[in-house]
Amino acid sequence: MPIAPITGKLRKRLWLDFSVALGLGVTSAYAFWYGIHLKSIQRQEEFYLRLERARAQAQ
Known about the structure:
Layout: H1 9-58
């Protein structure tokens, strides 16, 4: 008793898989950018601003 081949499965779910992957990718990118990256850049800028103020005050 042979098993029937699975046909059309990729084509039927292609758009669903593509849209879910694209949606999760964009959501992850926004979460990284606004949750992690911009906060680290802000901390870096604050550090250099404090350093510059300390140097200016020392002179």
